[in-house]
Amino acid sequence: MEHHKLKEIHLPRIYLISKGEENADKSSLLINQLSLLPPLIPCIMQIREKHLDARKLLTLALTARKIKLPKGSLLLCNERADVALTAMLDGVHLPENACSPDKLRTFASKLIFGCSIHSTKSLHFAEQSGADYLLFGPVFDTPSKRKYGAPQGLKKLGKLCRTTSLPVFALGGITQKNAAQCMNEGAYGIAGLSIFQDPTRLNDNLEQFHHILYP
Q1: In this prediction, what percent of the chain has a pLDDT beyond 90?
Q2: Dist CA 23 CA 26 (whole Å)
Q3: What does the pLDDT look like over 185-195, one tens digit per residue?
Q4: How sure is the predictor about 1, in pLDDT bands with cuts at 50, 70 and 90?
Q5: Rg (CA), the chain
Q6: With left for phi above 0 and alpha for psi between -120 and 50, is residue 172 left, alpha or beta?
Q7: C-alpha triplet 13, 166, 46: angle, nearest 5°
Q8: Which residue segments constitute the domains of the chain, with CATH numbers given?
C-alpha cells in the first residue's frame, strides 16, 4: 500500500503525548506545552484525552489548533477522526484495537494515520491497513505500563524496525540516556509523555533530544 502522506509531510522525530487528564479550557497543561515549544524544534503532539466527550475534545482541539507551532510540527488526536477533521488537525493516532486506517481514510484522505503496535502481527496489520507511522512500546520500564507486564526491550524494537519500512517511534521510559540506543536499533524517533510534562524543563529536554536525534 502506498503511504502518500509521508511524501508530502516530513515527520518530526520527537513525539509528545498529552497527559490524558486535560480539561477543555485554555489553561490546560496541553495548551501550555504547545505554547512553550521551541520555535526551531518541530514536534508531533498527540492529544490523548480519552476521558473527554466529543464536544469537550473538540473544544480542546480547536484551542490547540489556534496556537502557532514550530514549523513542521504536526497536531494529532487519539482515535477520533471526526474531531481531527472538524478541528483541522494533521492526523489521528490509533490504538492497536481501533478502526483501521484504510477504513478511516475513505472519508479523511488528507489525514496522517499512525498506529500503536506491540507485536509483529499488529505491525503487519498496520502496514496492510495503510498506516503512515508506528508507535512501539514500552521499550523500557515505565511506571504507567508496569501493570501490563515487562517492557518489550531494545532487541524487539530492533527486530520490528528491521521488519518494516515505516517510521517507528520508540515509546516507554525513553530518556536522553537511552534515546541513542533506540536510534541504533533503527527507530525513526522517540515518543514520551511524563518526560515532557514539566514546563520548566520542556525546552531543555526537547533541545537535548533534538541534538541526539539530529546529530
Answers
A1: 83
A2: 8
A3: 999 999 999 99
A4: very low
A5: 16
A6: left
A7: 45
A8: 5-213 (3.20.20.70)
